[in-house]
Design brief:
The chain is mainly beta. 35% of the residues are buried.
Length: 608
């Protein structure tokens, strides 16, 4: 690599060197082409994982992916339990509650894994998210592509870094004391060229254990090497592809017996039974009697017209369940009202909340929100989440079938929502019908895409699916007439000037000491990806220039999220990876990001 341009103390020279084996030897010399007199700092960042090597054989006849793992008996294995896990998050399990044996082989087009997981309580398909149920996670870093975090749940669902996929071949089965799985990962899902002997990939795996259900987070996560499967870490282990061949047994075909002819009996006609609906047991909680709307409310976020409707109140003193911090009434409490007509359920709520955070997280339920749990016996349980910024979801999946209006009020916020019977999966509503029901408040006082700090639940301990101790929503025949709004004259619109745009810019730098402050001599990082979001939609993406700078020019006023993706060789961030920006006209906002590797190696060199 020569020649290096004239000495410039502000310039960073970045080289990537692949060394298959052995030590690195290098030298810096002056060939006289330029004046390179000066002090240089050389930082060596190794991408070689520091953990254990797992050497896996090649197969020339792939395993049958059927969830039966007997054919894997002679394949080298890895064992994971509480005693050899690098990281345990949550409850420390016994071996019978959580442990596993993992095996792997490869061919040119696939990686194959098999695992037997010991788990005394099996929960699958309880949550909308694969990583919240019992599951296995495989962390694999492909240098030519990216890090992959393949999540495979007990019920066979699959995801990569949290995004649902269907590109893997997965089979699971229950076994004595737990469950087993087999998975084939094609190179297309890895973003890899055909696999070859002697290739190595940074690798780890983890077990996720849910012993509670109710869409709760897993109680235990055990990681083999490192502290996460999400993205490459130097503490990961290594998956090494050997040339040794393992032949899976070829299944012996079973002959099909010739069927014996038997006379066909004459069927005896039977009467068709009259179908009867299976009633859901009446919940044990209190009943909330709601009136029929003579005319529907105007959904505008103004709740004065609801004054005569019966209410439910919720605060720390009457909540059935409090998850997280116990709030004061000013920090979290609410008054809820409801009405109905044949085609809709209507709800209005005033929520007291001293810190309002909306549109901070990509997940609706991680911001300030109201949740309505309603069970429709003819359909299913619904968990309608209504966020401060108006986003809506049902059991965690984004929807747009509800009409939602929110507004800020003194001491908090308010909302109105109309839920059509199509969204409920119900026929027309009628007097004297009743439905299992509860509601909850979600409070986020921190932001930064964190989980909510407090959840208050009216009845039961979850809004996700019906529980025997939910309350009851009873539809009465009493009619409540919402006031008819007085029409107002439409004013002549005043022309408004087009808002003058602003910009968001900044620098990504190598924070050598990880203190979050850019010190003299700490260089900018080139080719780092920066993404810009409006709401949950990515509207722009760019990469940093040679000095680490980036810019999003000509942005209209609004609220944006600026997100940095760490380069794979710098897994630590000394500043938040995502920043919320409220941009005004003509405003230029600076957002900087610091990255470091946690293991800097300093080697001062003087050339004279």
């Amino acid at each position: 690599m020569q020649p290096i341009p004239p000495y410039d103390p502000t310039h960073v020279y970045t080289f990537t060197i692949t060394v298959p084996e052995g030590p690195i030897t290098f030298a810096v010399g002056d060939d006289g082409v330029y004046d390179n007199t000066g002090a240089y700092t050389v930082t060596i960042i190794t991408a070689q994982p520091l953990g254990t090597s797992y050497v896996i054989p090649r197969t020339e006849n792939p395993p049958t992916i059927d969830g039966l793992v007997d054919e894997w008996d002679s394949v080298p294995s890895l064992f994971l339990d509480k005693d050899n896990a690098d990281t345990i998050q949550g409850e420390v399990p016994t071996p019978s509650d959580l442990s596993a044996t993992l095996k792997a082989v490869w061919d040119s087009t696939h990686l194959y894994f098999a695992a037997v997981i010991q788990d005394d309580v099996l929960i699958g398909n309880d949550s909308a998210f694969a990583w919240r149920d019992d599951g296995l996670e495989l962390g694999i870093y492909i240098p030519s592509d990216r890090s992959h975090q393949f999540t495979i749940s007990l019920d066979g669902r699959q995801a990569d870094q949290g995004n649902t996929i269907s590109s893997l071949t997965v089979a699971t089965s229950t076994v004595s004391g737990g469950w087993a799985l087999e998975v084939a990962i094609p190179i297309e899902a890895l973003g890899s060229d055909p696999l070859l002997a002697d290739q190595r990939y940074p690798f780890t795996f983890a077990l996720k254990d849910d012993d509670v259900g109710h869409d709760s987070p897993t109680q235990t996560t055990m990681v083999w090497e490192g502290d996460s499967t999400y993205s490459f870490q130097q503490e990961w282990g290594e998956l090494r592809l050997s040339g040794q061949v393992y032949d899976f047994p070829t299944p012996t075909p079973t002959s099909t017996p010739t069927p014996t002819n038997t006379p066909t009996p004459t069927p005896t006609p039977t009467s068709t039974p009259t179908p009867t609906a299976t009633p859901y047991p009446t919940p044990s909680g209190p009943s909330y009697l709601i009136p029929r709307a003579g005319q529907p409310p105007i959904l505008d976020g103004e709740l004065n017209e609801w004054d005569g409707v019966p209410t439910l109140s919720l605060d720390k003193d009457n909540a059935s369940t409090i998850i997280g911090q116990v709030p004061s009434p000013a920090d979290l409490s609410a008054t809820l009202r409801a009405a109905w007509d044949p085609d809709h359920l209507y709800f209005a709520a005033t929520i007291n909340d001293d810190v309002l955070i909306g549109n901070d997280s990509i997940f609706v339920w991680q911001d300030d929100a109201l949740e309505l749990g309603i069970h429709i016996p003819a359909d299913r349980s619904h968990q309608f989440t209504l966020a401060l910024d108006g986003r809506q979801a049902d059991q965690g999946s984004a929807i747009s079938s509800l009409t939602v209006v929110t507004s800020a009020v003194t001491g908090g916020w308010s909302l109105e929502v109309a839920i059509p019977i199509d969204a409920l999966g119900s026929g027309p509503l009628a007097t004297d019908q009743w439905y299992p029901f509860t509601f909850a408040l979600k409070d986020d006082d921190v932001g930064n895409d964190s989980s909510t700090q407090t959840t208050l639940i009216w009845q039961g301990d979850s809004t996700y699916s019906v529980q025997p101790n939910w309350g009851i929503l009873r539809l009465t025949g009493q009619v409540y007439d919402f006031p008819t709004p007085t029409p107002t004259a439409t004013p002549t619109p005043t022309p408004t000037a087009t808002p003058i745009p602003g910009s968001i810019s900044g620098t990504v730098w190598f924070d050598r000491n990880g203190d979050g402050v850019r010190d003299p001599g700490e260089p900018g990082l080139v080719d780092v990806t920066i993404r810009l979001f409006a709401g949950n939609t990515q509207i722009a993406s760019t990469t940093t220039l040679g000095d680490g700078s980036y810019q999003f020019p000509s942005l209209p006023p609004g609220t944006y999220r600026v997100q940095e993706q760490n380069p794979p060789w710098l897994r630590f961030s000394s500043t938040p990876d995502e920043v919320l920006v409220v941009l005004s006209a003509r405003q230029d906002v600076t957002v900087n990001f610091g990255d470091w590797n946690g293991r800097p190696v300093w080697m001062p060199m003087i050339l004279r």
